[in-house]
Amino acid sequence: MTTSPAARAAALRALHRPGDPLLLPNAWDAGSARAVVDAGFAAVATSSAAVAESLGYADGEDAPVGEIFAAVARVARAVDVPVTADLERGYGLRPTELVERLLEAGAVGLNLEDSDPRSGALVDDGRQTELLAGVRAAAEAAGVPIVVNARVDVFLRQAGEPAGWLGETVRRACRYLAAGADCVYPILLAGPAELRSVVQAVAAPVNVLARPGTPTVAELAALGVARVSHGAGVYAATRAYTARLLAAVAAGGPLG
């Protein structure tokens, strides 16, 4: 993009409108990012799982951090819209380096999750708050108001008794927003009543993962959701389609 990083970050932030959600069919390389933009979407988000697998690694911070940022840079160079990167829990980088490398790659937003990508255990929310506050401080020092999407993994990791998951999700979300996050992402939370409770409790942009069983975009909008991500869904569908094409070719048929 020809605009400044600060302008791109402001544009990305402005797309988070409760009731009129930003739709993000997540990309993994330059070609998929161009396809997202060509389809009319206003921003591009990467998927950590899709990027890692396309590079030959497993999700869960298995890929070398340099390869991840190189992939993000290829995505950002390929499109003329704001890019936000799924960076798991930051690959062990200090907040200053994390923000520097994000901006060097051309992205102006990032996801950070609050569970350990390797063990799957929820991280102490105090530690996560420190990470988010550090990222916000580093962004302010760089003069770029990057968009920080704080993933809340309580429902994903099923920590504690189910009756307490919603309350713990709200508690963590509020702490993360106070630490400098712009948006919260209670991944796998899909029940309309629960989503409404989170939206009302946090009074900030809420991100939902679109998957089978999730309310429609119109229903999510009515609940006040501000962002809808598809995670690795487009990548998985592309791989499945490719596998069908290759099976047809192997059987002696034409391509397509």
Automatic annotation (TrEMBL):
Which Gene3D superfamilies does this chain map to?
A: Phosphoenolpyruvate-binding domains
Q: Does the keyword Lyase apply?
A: yes
Query: Which Pfam families does this one have?
Result: PEP_mutase
Which residues constitute the signal peptide according to the record? none
The molecular function GO annotations come to: lyase activity
Keywords, sorted A to Z: Lyase
The record's annotation in CDD domains points to: ICL_PEPM (cd00377)
Keyword Methyltransferase assigned: no
Question: Any idea what this protein is called?
Answer: 2-Methylisocitrate lyase, PEP mutase family
Q: What is the originating organism of this protein?
A: Micromonospora phaseoli
- In the record, what lineage is assigned to the organism producing the protein? Bacteria, Bacillati, Actinomycetota, Actinomycetes, Micromonosporales
